[in-house]
Structure formats: structure tokens, C-alpha cells
Design goal:
The protein is an alpha/beta fold. Helix content is 40%, strand content 27%. The chain has two domains: 6-76, Helix Hairpins, CATH 1.10.287; 79-155, Chitinase A, domain 3 (Roll), CATH 3.10.50. The protein has helices spanning 10-40, 48-72, 124-129; strands at residues 6-9, 74-77, 90-95, 100-107, 118-120, 137-142, 145-155. A hairpin with a 2-residue loop joins strand 6 (137-142) and strand 7.
């Protein structure tokens, strides 16, 4: 089965590589030391420190494998250029009901972070604006109902 491709900006890719390097070079050593200390306590059958350290090690190795797969299967998004919303575009949208504007960057789901105004191409707003032009009005089906947005500006 082919692994799913992961859409990342160059910055997002670099952050994943940095996190992977940290987990491999720092966290692995910390967990190994914790495991070694727990083993030194003796009887492993009733040693909760040993069990906790083994669980932490398993979780860490799983996270490392996940990051390696994302990096291996990543496609770097080039900044969107032109007059059509695409992956990597910064898009200013206006909520037509409340007359409020927000600017978002359209990224892959791995990199999405609403606090940093990075929305996924798979989110309701991301799906609605992808491929649209300045001036287009889109309808977003949200839990609160249908929200209409107008695309005000597209930047690379």
C-alpha cells in the first residue's frame, strides 16, 4: 500500500526535520538513561519506573517513525503565484455576514495551525477557496451553518 503524500511548506518541512533530529539525538538518549536507571532498581516485574520508561520509549520510537514517514513522503509546496488560490497562497477573505477580514495561508493538513492562521487544504474553508480568484464568493459549510466569504486578496 502506498503511503499518503504529505504537503508541506519549506518551513514546515524544516521544522519536521529539526524535530526528528531532536528526538533522535536528545530524547532517545534521555529515555535510554531513564530506562537504564529503572533497570538498576532491580526486580523488573513490579518496577513501575521501568514500565513507564518502556512505554515512553515505545511512544518515542513511534513518533520518530511517523516523522520519518512524513519527511520521506513529503511534497514541498512552492509559494502560490498568480491570481488563483493554490497551496502556499496567503489569502485574505471577508466574512460577508460580519464584514470582517482574515488572512490565512493554505497548507497541507500536517502543517495546519489555526493559531498561526495556517489552514489545511482539507478544511471546509480550504476546500472552498482552493482554485478561486480574487472577487469570488464561496460558501463554507460549517457546524454553525453556511458562511459566505469573498476572496479579497491572494499573495505568494
Amino acid at each position: 500500500m502506498a503511503e499518503k503524500r504529505v504537503m508541506l511548506t519549506e518551513d514546515g518541512y524544516n521544522k519536521l526535520v529539526e524535530k526528528l533530529n531532536y528526538l533522535k539525538s536528545v530524547r532517545r538518549i534521555e529515555v535510554a538513561e531513564r530506562l537504564k536507571a529503572a533497570i538498576a532498581l532491580g526486580d523488573l516485574s513490579e518496577n513501575s519506573e521501568y514500565d513507564d520508561a518502556k512505554n515512553e520509549q515505545a511512544f518515542l520510537e513511534g513518533e520518530i517513525m511517523d516523522l520519518e514517514a512524513k519527511i520521506r513522503n513529503s511534497d514541498i509546496i512552492k509559494s502560490g503565484e498568480g491570481d488563483v488560490v493554490q497551496m502556499g497562497s496567503k489569502v485574505t477573505v471577508k466574512d460577508l455576514e460580519f464584514d470582517e477580514e482574515e488572512t490565512y495561508m493554505l497548507v497541507g493538513s500536517t502543517e495546519a495551525d489555526p493559531d498561526e492562521y495556517k489552514i489545511s487544504n482539507e478544511s471546509p474553508l480550504g476546500v472552498a477557496i482552493l482554485g478561486q480568484k480574487v472577487g469570488s464568493v464561496v460558501e463554507v459549510h460549517a457546524p454553525a451553518g453556511i458562511i459566505k466569504y469573498q476572496i479579497m486578496k491572494i499573495e505568494a
